[in-house]
């Protein structure tokens, strides 16, 4: 009696589920990060020091959506705080 060879189907299902979970976690993480940056100038200041490229993406996405002046407002507030 010969056994049929194992298929990759169980592994493929698990891999697909893992990828979906990672994608959903990434979407929620990006949403949380955007909301935190959108509501807190202090958090944007921290992002400016630690991850300026992420903050640049935030500014660009707002400008692309037609929301202008956030970058300028932040720079004015931060320069006034230093003085």
Intertermini distance = 85 Å
CA gyration radius, whole angstroms: 22 Å
Spans of at least 5 consecutive residues whose pLDDT stays below 50 are none
Helix percent reads: over 70%
- What value does the average pLDDT take? 92
Molecular shape: rod-shaped
* Structural class by SSE content: mainly alpha
- Note the main sheet: none
Count of DSSP helices? 4
Strand content: under 5%
Overall number of strands:
0
Q: Encode the helix/strand succession as letters.
A: HHHH
Feature tags:
83 residues; 81% helix
Quickly describe the structure.
This protein is mainly α.
Structure description:
The chain has 83 residues and is mainly α. Helix content is 81%, strand content 0%. It contains four helices and no strands. The protein is rod-shaped. The mean pLDDT is 92.
């Amino acid at each position: 009696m010969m056994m049929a060879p194992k298929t990759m189907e169980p592994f493929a299902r698990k891999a697909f589920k893992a990828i979906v979970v990672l994608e959903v976690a990434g979407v929620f993480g990006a949403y949380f990060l955007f909301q935190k940056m959108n509501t807190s100038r202090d958090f944007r200041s921290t992002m400016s020091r630690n991850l300026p490229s992420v903050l640049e993406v935030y500014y660009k996405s707002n400008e692309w959506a037609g929301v202008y002046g956030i970058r300028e407002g932040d720079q004015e507030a931060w320069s006034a705080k230093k003085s």
